[in-house]
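Schema walk-through. Below, the input block comes first and the output block second. Nothing else is stored per chain. Lengths vary across the set, and this one has 691 residues.
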Amino acid sequence: MTALFATVNGVTQFLLLPCGTEGDVNDDKIAGVSPIGAMIDLEPMLHVALEGDGFSRDFAAGNTLRYADTAFGLRLEGQELSEEGKKTVLVSRFANGKGLVCRNILEWYKGEGLLTSRNELENTGEPVVVEALPSFNFSGVSPYGRQNLPQEVVLHKLVSNWSGEGKLYSVPTDRIAFEPSWSGLGLRIEKWTQTGTMPARGQLPFVAVEDRAHGVCWAAAIEAPASWTIETVFRNNNISVGGGRGDFLTAHWRKTLKRGEKICSDRAFLTVVKGDLEEACHRLLERFRRETVKKTEEDLPVLYNEYCYSWGNPSEEKLEKLLSAAEELGCRYFVVDDGWFKKAEGAARKVIGDWETDRTAFPRGIKAFSERVRSHGMSLGLWYEFENANTACEIYREHPEFFLTRAGRPISHRGVVFFDFRKAEAREYLREKVIRALRENGVGYIKVDYNENVGLGADGAESLGEGLRAHIEGVLDFYRELKRELPEVVLEICSSGGMRHEPAFLELADMVSFSDAHENPAGVNVACNLHRYIPPRKLQIWATIRDEYGLEEVRFTMAKAMLGRICLSGNLANKPREILEELGRAVSFYRTVSPIVKEGKTVCIWDGEIVSYLDPVGRTYLVRESGDGKEKLVYAYAIRAPKAEFAINTGDFRVKAAYNRPEDVRIEDGVLKFTAKDCALWGCVLLMERV
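--- output ---
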């Protein structure tokens, strides 16, 4: 990649190009001269906005906090390049001559195909109120032609809803009017935002723009543990992309910055490739290679979670009979999900917040059951939703001051309230109920769920958005403390399935729940789509084995779960021998291909036939390469499409091994061909080797 900075009339913009394409850049376009000869202010690199700012006169005001007076007033004063081991850092220093200094910090790690961007704002003058501090902005997309061909420039985002996470949405920019007006004046904005503490609700904090005419794709993902915004803007014949923390317009965030104070944005991850969307997404995932993987996680072990058996009513008696089957299948973790805790006094059902063991369900306590699980060669996992509580719980009745408020009243959504992680007393209570309890009970795995959204913000700061930002930073600090205090405990992050799919939480987790699509066949498509955003070694996929499943349904389910981390569920104790043996074969095959799941590269995701995730019909497939390029995994599925035919370009490879191998598999001129069986749910995984 090449980072290019262009300054015209004092305004500096930032472009990102694939190496070798610098000579193809159109200078007039970069300078802001449109094809019709109009000249509009250049695109600022730093879209900082302060209270009281005016905005550029291209109909920006009210639509966006971009193009504020402060953004145009920041001048590049210098750049400093340094190296710190494998990391190269470029700091660009801007100032407005009134005491405001902004530093854009770009970081690159040797061998990776992405940059990290963040902005630091320092005030050396009179107090100011900041209303926008995004993490990144790159412009000049696409810089190669005098005028964009809007049919050839495609905007990509990942729509993400409950049990339908990560669905690719792609639109040519002519469909959203990304072309100049007759005078060149006016903005066209495609903006998406999320407000609150479920950052993947509606869409993932991700954007990509692909210039298919020149074979180049730009992509970005932002850390977004709470409110965020991403804006793709067409202005003066250029597309610019930027975003970060939710601003005052979208999330009621503003922050007073006094003399001598600094604030910093969250991180953004940026890339550009001479290639397509899948290559750009793979580049963004390279940052996860720097993580240290726990020894217990290196071989991607299978786990069992009992939720789709007890459905929230676990007990020692129910679960005891599952232990032998889970052990036989080689599970390393046995997870007790929601419902292991007792009812609050006067409550009609179990409520979260007090975290006392239900002695009716577990008469000997969690520690004794943990020891029983360990005797079968597994570690006990325990479910928590420790950020929230119910108004019926004892801790809320006794200490309502531990919880977030808005307008002076507790934030309560139908009885769900939220611990305020800015308060030392609340954190100390949770240390006892979570960290200490895990340690004393010998728990080796924690599944942390999160099933309600705080919303706009919270009291306790100069704005509701700043109150929410400080609270979520306290939440992240508590997760970090949990990891420090219990370094061997495996951490799964869940939020109604996948509503916390964002970089800060993904980085904390050993695994993340892919979805609450426990049994829906379209879970295949969800898992495939999330390969663009989450490393498969972290992507935990439900493999629920229902009582009525025959062999083909079991094979489909296990082939689906092999797209990431296998999480078995259902009543394993009542399965006929042939089903258990089939599960054993699936787990054994998964162990042989797990290195590709862990270290490989997804090169093709195709789901063109399946429109509805509620009622899916059709074929889908995914191709993943090994790190050395010598092997491939081909995942293929047919949903209510008996005898569906597949033709997948695989190149000079042959089939080495397979799970649920098709009877007619063959290769013709580099195309892998086969036919699904005559059944409603069918799936296979083929391991291929280079010829």
